[in-house]
Amino acid sequence: MRSYKGQVSLGQMKDSFQQSGLVDWHFNPRLQDGDEQHTDGDLAVALAPPQLKRPPLYAVVMLNDDYTPMDFVIEILQQYFALNLDQATQVMLTVHYEGKAVAGVYPRDIAETKANQVNHYARSQGYPLLCQIELKE
Ligand code: TYC
To answer: Where would I find the Adaptor protein ClpS core domain in this sequence (predicted)?
Structure first.
Protein backbone atom coordinates (compact mmCIF):
# COMPACT_ATOMS: atom_id res chain seq x y z
CA MET A 1 0.00 0.00 0.00
CA ARG A 2 1.35 3.39 -0.93
CA SER A 3 2.36 5.58 2.00
CA TYR A 4 1.14 9.18 2.03
CA LYS A 5 3.28 10.02 5.07
CA GLY A 6 4.62 13.55 4.92
CA GLN A 7 2.35 14.56 2.04
CA VAL A 8 -1.19 14.73 3.39
CA SER A 9 -2.71 13.94 6.75
CA LEU A 10 -4.79 10.88 7.34
CA GLY A 11 -7.78 13.12 7.96
CA GLN A 12 -7.30 14.81 4.59
CA MET A 13 -7.09 11.42 2.90
CA LYS A 14 -10.27 10.25 4.60
CA ASP A 15 -12.08 13.43 3.61
CA SER A 16 -10.94 13.22 0.05
CA PHE A 17 -11.93 9.58 -0.34
CA GLN A 18 -15.25 10.24 1.33
CA GLN A 19 -15.99 13.25 -0.88
CA SER A 20 -15.09 11.35 -4.03
CA GLY A 21 -17.92 8.91 -3.33
CA LEU A 22 -15.96 6.34 -5.30
CA VAL A 23 -14.81 4.16 -2.47
CA ASP A 24 -15.91 2.75 0.84
CA TRP A 25 -13.00 3.52 3.12
CA HIS A 26 -11.75 1.69 6.15
CA PHE A 27 -8.86 2.90 8.23
CA ASN A 28 -6.90 0.99 10.78
CA PRO A 29 -8.30 2.41 14.02
CA ARG A 30 -4.87 2.32 15.62
CA LEU A 31 -3.68 4.89 13.13
CA GLN A 32 -4.70 8.40 14.06
CA ASP A 33 -3.88 11.90 12.94
CA GLY A 34 -0.90 13.17 14.89
CA ASP A 35 0.38 9.71 15.88
CA GLU A 36 4.14 9.49 15.82
CA GLN A 37 4.32 5.79 15.08
CA HIS A 38 2.92 4.72 11.74
CA THR A 39 2.48 1.57 9.83
CA ASP A 40 2.97 2.18 6.14
CA GLY A 41 -0.61 3.28 5.73
CA ASP A 42 -3.19 0.69 6.74
CA LEU A 43 -5.83 1.84 4.32
CA ALA A 44 -8.16 -0.56 2.59
CA VAL A 45 -10.38 0.69 -0.18
CA ALA A 46 -13.14 -1.12 -2.02
CA LEU A 47 -15.08 0.03 -5.03
CA ALA A 48 -18.51 1.25 -4.02
CA PRO A 49 -21.44 0.95 -6.42
CA PRO A 50 -22.18 4.34 -7.99
CA GLN A 51 -25.12 5.99 -6.26
CA LEU A 52 -26.69 7.94 -9.07
CA LYS A 53 -30.18 9.35 -9.22
CA ARG A 54 -31.78 11.34 -11.98
CA PRO A 55 -32.75 14.85 -10.88
CA PRO A 56 -36.47 15.52 -10.38
CA LEU A 57 -38.01 17.11 -13.46
CA TYR A 58 -40.20 20.20 -13.57
CA ALA A 59 -42.63 21.24 -16.28
CA VAL A 60 -42.66 24.88 -17.33
CA VAL A 61 -46.39 25.52 -17.67
CA MET A 62 -47.64 28.46 -19.70
CA LEU A 63 -50.92 30.07 -18.64
CA ASN A 64 -53.52 31.76 -20.78
CA ASP A 65 -54.50 35.41 -20.54
CA ASP A 66 -56.70 37.68 -22.64
CA TYR A 67 -54.08 40.25 -23.65
CA THR A 68 -50.81 38.67 -24.81
CA PRO A 69 -50.80 38.46 -28.63
CA MET A 70 -50.70 34.98 -30.12
CA ASP A 71 -47.67 35.81 -32.27
CA PHE A 72 -45.74 36.95 -29.24
CA VAL A 73 -46.47 33.66 -27.43
CA ILE A 74 -45.36 31.67 -30.47
CA GLU A 75 -42.08 33.61 -30.62
CA ILE A 76 -41.46 33.00 -26.93
CA LEU A 77 -42.05 29.27 -27.34
CA GLN A 78 -39.58 29.15 -30.23
CA GLN A 79 -36.91 31.26 -28.54
CA TYR A 80 -36.98 29.95 -24.98
CA PHE A 81 -38.19 26.38 -25.48
CA ALA A 82 -36.61 25.51 -28.84
CA LEU A 83 -39.92 24.57 -30.46
CA ASN A 84 -40.34 24.86 -34.21
CA LEU A 85 -43.12 27.01 -35.65
CA ASP A 86 -45.65 24.15 -35.85
CA GLN A 87 -44.94 22.94 -32.33
CA ALA A 88 -45.04 26.47 -30.93
CA THR A 89 -48.36 27.16 -32.66
CA GLN A 90 -49.83 23.94 -31.27
CA VAL A 91 -48.73 24.71 -27.71
CA MET A 92 -49.99 28.31 -27.97
CA LEU A 93 -53.40 27.09 -29.19
CA THR A 94 -53.61 24.52 -26.40
CA VAL A 95 -52.96 27.29 -23.87
CA HIS A 96 -55.48 29.54 -25.58
CA TYR A 97 -58.28 26.95 -25.65
CA GLU A 98 -57.53 24.90 -22.54
CA GLY A 99 -56.03 27.48 -20.21
CA LYS A 100 -52.53 26.05 -19.90
CA ALA A 101 -49.96 23.77 -21.55
CA VAL A 102 -46.46 22.46 -20.93
CA ALA A 103 -43.82 24.45 -22.80
CA GLY A 104 -40.91 22.23 -21.73
CA VAL A 105 -39.59 19.87 -19.05
CA TYR A 106 -36.26 20.41 -17.26
CA PRO A 107 -34.36 19.96 -14.00
CA ARG A 108 -35.47 22.52 -11.42
CA ASP A 109 -32.86 25.23 -11.89
CA ILE A 110 -33.33 25.31 -15.64
CA ALA A 111 -37.12 25.28 -15.38
CA GLU A 112 -37.02 28.15 -12.85
CA THR A 113 -34.65 30.16 -15.01
CA LYS A 114 -36.74 29.76 -18.15
CA ALA A 115 -40.00 30.64 -16.38
CA ASN A 116 -38.37 33.74 -14.85
CA GLN A 117 -36.83 34.81 -18.15
CA VAL A 118 -40.15 34.49 -19.98
CA ASN A 119 -42.10 36.30 -17.25
CA HIS A 120 -39.58 39.18 -17.14
CA TYR A 121 -39.34 39.48 -20.90
CA ALA A 122 -43.15 39.49 -21.32
CA ARG A 123 -43.45 42.16 -18.61
CA SER A 124 -40.74 44.26 -20.27
CA GLN A 125 -42.84 44.21 -23.46
CA GLY A 126 -46.00 45.15 -21.56
CA TYR A 127 -47.74 41.73 -21.63
CA PRO A 128 -49.12 39.69 -18.72
CA LEU A 129 -47.99 36.30 -20.11
CA LEU A 130 -47.15 33.99 -17.20
CA CYS A 131 -45.18 30.76 -16.83
CA GLN A 132 -45.03 28.69 -13.67
CA ILE A 133 -43.21 25.47 -12.83
CA GLU A 134 -44.74 22.17 -11.64
CA LEU A 135 -42.97 19.13 -10.27
CA LYS A 136 -43.58 16.15 -12.50
CA GLU A 137 -43.91 12.81 -10.77
N1 TYC B 1 -55.41 34.21 -25.28
C2 TYC B 1 -54.45 35.07 -25.96
C3 TYC B 1 -55.19 35.85 -27.07
O4 TYC B 1 -56.32 35.53 -27.40
C5 TYC B 1 -53.30 34.27 -26.58
C6 TYC B 1 -52.47 33.60 -25.58
C7 TYC B 1 -52.05 32.30 -25.80
C8 TYC B 1 -52.05 34.25 -24.44
C9 TYC B 1 -51.23 31.65 -24.88
C10 TYC B 1 -51.22 33.62 -23.52
O11 TYC B 1 -50.00 31.70 -22.87
C12 TYC B 1 -50.82 32.33 -23.75
N13 TYC B 1 -54.51 36.85 -27.62
So the answer is: 53-132
What is the C-alpha separation between 11 and 44, in angstroms, rounded? Answer: 15
User: Once rounded to an integer, what is the mean pLDDT over residues 91-97?
Assistant: 98
Residue 8 scores a pLDDT above 90? no
CATH number at residue 102: 3.30.1390.10
> In the predicted model, is pLDDT for residue 14 greater than 60?
no
Atom 12 of ligand 1, residue of closest alpha carbon: 64
Mean pLDDT of all residues belonging to the chain: 82
- Do 129 and 63 belong together in one domain? yes
Is residue 40 located within the same domain as residue 62?
no
Ligand 1 lined by 71 (C-beta under 6 Å):
no
Q: Does residue 18 form part of some domain?
A: yes
pLDDT above 90 coverage of the chain, percent? 62
Q: Kindly provide the residue ranges of all beta strands, DSSP E only, lying in 4-97, ordered along the sequence.
A: 23-27, 43-47, 57-63
Confirm or reject: Cβ of 64 under 6 Å from ligand 1. Answer: yes
Specify the residue with its C-alpha closest to ligand 1, atom 4. Answer: 66
Q: Are residues 96 and 127 in the same domain?
A: yes
Q: For 50, phi and psi rounded to 5 degrees? A: -65, 135
